[in-house]
Amino acid sequence: MTAETSQTLDRGLRVLKLLADTDHGLTVTELSHKLGVNRTVVYRLLATLEQHALVRRDLGGRARVGLGVLGLGRQVHPLVREAAMPALRALAEDIGATAHLTLVDGAEALAVAVVEPTWTDYHVAYRAGFRHPLERGAAGKAILAARRPTQPPGERAEAPGYTLTHGELEAGACGAAAPLLGVTGVEGSVGVVMLADVVPERVGERVMHAAREVAEALR
């Protein structure tokens, strides 16, 4: 800690990070040990975080992340969208297809930024706010593929790093997407959707390049 920082705020943020890293919550004693402070300090931290709905305690006394963090999380989308736009514009213009940034929202894939090409006669209409299950569509499947070390049998991945699909979300439309990698706190993918029978060979590599650009912008 330095003279310019707040020890109490630092401890409160550490509590949130510890709780975010566990599915079953933590007791006051467990938090006390992990933080290296006494239980009285932990009680005060939890009481303050509870007032802002950032922490909740279940009937067994275990502390968990509260629903208040969702309100903070919603404000992240505009920041992520702004950072991703240059790479998405370049991708859409280069490929001549609708480019999108998709983030995980529970069990769904949520398109948070969409850029349509300016020079094509026609392209797939795809809107920010569009949702679909993670198990369907290139955007969601690319995210799921990044969660596991190897591809399962039957997964439609043409090369390490990107996923292709056809007709899963819209008849006659193909999708290609690559996951965002190395961005703490953000799970998503960058992809394109186009009206075609087959995705051109260069699209997969180009999508991977765009995903790397977006990831770099978010670091």
UniProtKB/TrEMBL annotation:
Residues covered by the IclR-ED domain: 68-219
UniProt keyword annotation of Glycosyltransferase present: no
Xref: SUPFAM superfamilies: GAF domain-like (SSF55781), Winged helix' DNA-binding domain (SSF46785)
Stored CDD domains: HTH_ARSR
Pfam families with a match to the protein in the record: HTH_IclR, IclR_C
Keywords: DNA-binding, Transcription, Transcription regulation
Domain HTH iclR-type: start-end pairs: 6-67
InterPro entries tied to this protein: ArsR-like_HTH (IPR011991), GAF-like_dom_sf (IPR029016), HTH_MetabolicPath_Reg (IPR050707), Tscrpt_reg_IclR_C (IPR014757), Tscrpt_reg_IclR_N (IPR005471), WH-like_DNA-bd_sf (IPR036388), WH_DNA-bd_sf (IPR036390)
PANTHER family, alphabetized: HELIX-TURN-HELIX TRANSCRIPTIONAL REGULATOR, ICLR FAMILY, HTH-TYPE TRANSCRIPTIONAL REPRESSOR ALLR
Protein name (record): Helix-turn-helix domain-containing protein
